[in-house]
Amino acid sequence: MFDCSILFIVLVWNHMQHYYELFQDNGRRRVAIKLEIIQNQGELFNRAVDIISNSLKNGAKTFGLATGGTMLPLYERLRNSDLDFSTCQSVNLDEYVGIPKEHPESYHSYMNRQLFHAKPFKVINIPNGEAKDIHKEANDYEELLKTLTVNLQIIGVGENGHIGFNEPGTPFNSETHVVELAASTREANARFFDSIEEVPKMAITMGISTILRAECILLIATGEKKRYAMEALLKGEITEDIPVTSILQHPNVMILTDLDLDVR
Fold it and tell me: What is the pTM of this model?
């Protein structure tokens, strides 16, 4: 998909951190995206906690949650915070297919270990990667999500620009579906398993249109391996070849990164 949109970048504030507003002009409307460059990772994740805290104070009840290495410092800070999610609902972006929930690298186990044991939610929703009919499970999860309003959706980004497990080429109108994981994604996740052969080859993931239904999106991108995706995002071309660029269509996006990006 090619989009001839133009990305305008306006410096709003520069003190301790770089704070920009990016205006995506697609000929129909201008969409503002807030970008904060915070090179100290401790400060970056403290800022992420502040955003979540403010969402709670403003009445947020449903949080979209992500997994992976990027989120570990965030969940550590949430575990040690005084934030209370006991009246809230969570929805996770994805889950591997073909490994049991009890497997230490399933996203059920990840979420229990990294967050839920210390910060319980009233309702927890994660796709069931052990379902006998995984395509029906994906459809059922999508139907559940359509009954909810996700107030804040937290996402990371893959080295190839994927969000959730939506690999390059995924249609922007996709809903929750079963996906075959790209080799690069499996290689990136192999560090969590004993060998690359143990990394699942399939997953259930929220679709791109599913993610974009959230009221607000918080994207966290840390480390040099995310530079390709973030530089592609700043170029402003909305393309299915780089799924993260889909967020340029969303009216309420915040981006936190530690990359020293050229925003000129």
Answer: 0.89
* 15-48 pLDDT, tens digit each: 345 666 666 665 555 566 889 999 999 999 999 9
End-to-end CA distance of the chain: 25
Is residue 125 flagged as an active site residue?
no
Longest dimension (CA), the chain: 53
Angle at CA of residue 206, ends 27 and 185, nearest 5°: 95
Catalytic (active site) residue 15:
no
Rounded Cα gap, residues 185 and 148, in angstroms: 29
Model confidence over 178-215: pLDDT tens digits?
999 888 788 888 888 888 888 888 999 999 999 999 99
Give Cβ neighbours of residue 94 (< 8 Å, ≥ 6 apart): 67, 107, 127, 164, 165, 203, 204, 205, 206
Is residue 241 flagged as an active site residue?
no
Contact 33, 255 (CB under 8 A): yes
The whole-chain average pLDDT of the chain stands at 89
Task: Return the residue matching tokens 């999508």.
Answer: 142
Catalytic choice (36, 137, 167, 240): 167
Out of 92, 160, 166, 189, the active site residue is 160
Is 160 annotated in the active site? yes
